[in-house]
From TrEMBL:
All residue ranges annotated as the Fumarylacetoacetase N-terminal domain in the record: 26-123
Organism: Koribacter versatilis (strain Ellin345)
Binding sites annotated in the UniProt record for Ca(2+): 131, 203, 205, 237
Binding site for substrate: 133, 147, 244, 248, 364
Record's keyword annotation contains Metal-binding: yes
EC number: 3.7.1.2
Name listed for the protein in its UniProt record: fumarylacetoacetase
Residues that bind Mg(2+): 237, 257, 261
Annotated Pfam families: FAA_hydrolase (PF01557), FAA_hydrolase_N (PF09298)
Amino acid sequence: MNETHDPKIKSWVASANAPDCDFPLQNLPFGVFRRKNDEGGGIGVAIGDQVFDVGAWVRDQGKSSAEFKLLTEKRLNRFLAAGPQIWSAARMALFNLLREDSPQREQVARYLDATANVEMEMPIDIGDYTDFYASVFHATNVGSMFRPDNPLLPNYKWVPIGYHGRASSVVASGAAVKRPSGQRKPPTADMPTFGPCAQLDYELEVGAVIGPGNALGETVPLRDAEKHIFGLCLLNDWSARDIQAWEYQPLGPFLAKNFVTTISPWLVTLEALEPYRRSAYKRPEGDPQPLPYLSDENDQQRGAFDVSLDAYLSTRKMRDEKIAPISLSHGSLRDMYWTFGQMLAHHASNGCNLQPGDLIGSGTVSGQSKHSRGCLLELSWRGTEPISLPSGETRKFLEDGDEVIFRGYAEREGQARIGFGECRGIVVG
Ligand SMILES: O=C(O)/C=C/C(=O)CC(=O)CC(=O)O
Ligand SMILES: [Ca+2]
Ligand SMILES: [Mg+2]
């Protein structure tokens, strides 16, 4: 911990000091923005309800040190590649510029824009995207629907299961989600048909963004794995369940999941989340101990990040009738069977090279309780238990006009609240 974690230090940006603010001085997430009036943009940092145009400030001030120079780029990849020391130095410098007693307050104030006046873009150019399956609760639930005889496959507790996703279709929050078409074959039908997905779903996940990578052929030991993670964001792995059920064997998800994936635009640094570590998920008695390359005392001691995750739904009718989005689920990243450290160490354990800006999905975050299930497949139990909405409507899966909203935050008595902002997408036909 350092001064940037001290909740007593306030910002001169008044909105950052509100108790329910996602972006207090202690957070300082990085993103890429564009002004709505077309007057440029670039790498920025969120503070309260403002965006600090860090790129422009660095350029105008003629700052030449590495931690600043890299923030004048169009995307965050090169900054991410620079590693934890540079990230920390930048964070400390930004903290000092924005703290209440900053002597540069007036000069910096000229580089702030209301978040309402900007649009967020993709923060990184994503080279590769991998999605894991790290919630044993999600895996057990999905398994019992797709494979009733064998819900949790025997490899689950040994291998952090994942599949290679598609980087080209990862979009920033707010982009429309076009309902995909594909092959579906209900169990009762003789043959498949091609047409619009009838079981469109979301998956509430957290994305980890890779900083420095590893060279091809080299591995990442678990004890060092977190040094390769810059930060976290919210991630929606939109999923076409009817397409998935028909196509996924034997090679896993393909067109059911690569039509679009949405991420929240602000990357919350691991450093900002440091005060929110808790003991990681405790394997029940009788579960195998992870193999040595997935087992490290320090990783265990560091624990998991206790990030609360909420999914909300707003239908077109609800918006027309001014009904607020309804909570579908509430869970925590802490409930995952595998840590991001283990997922990363596993990913690189065969020498596969990770690169700066790669995106790693946690897998759907579901907990033990019913209200912590992170997708409609689980919440409506494959459509057999429709969800009633305050508008009088019901949902088994998503309909056109439905908006899915994720929120994430870490909270703890006596600490600043570290929020993720939102990850949104509206389904269009
Ligand atoms: O159990 C299966 O066959 C597939 C489950 C998924 O939907 C895979 C996935 O995207 C992983 C996850 O989000 O946890
Ligand atoms: Ca997923
Ligand atoms: Mg996807």
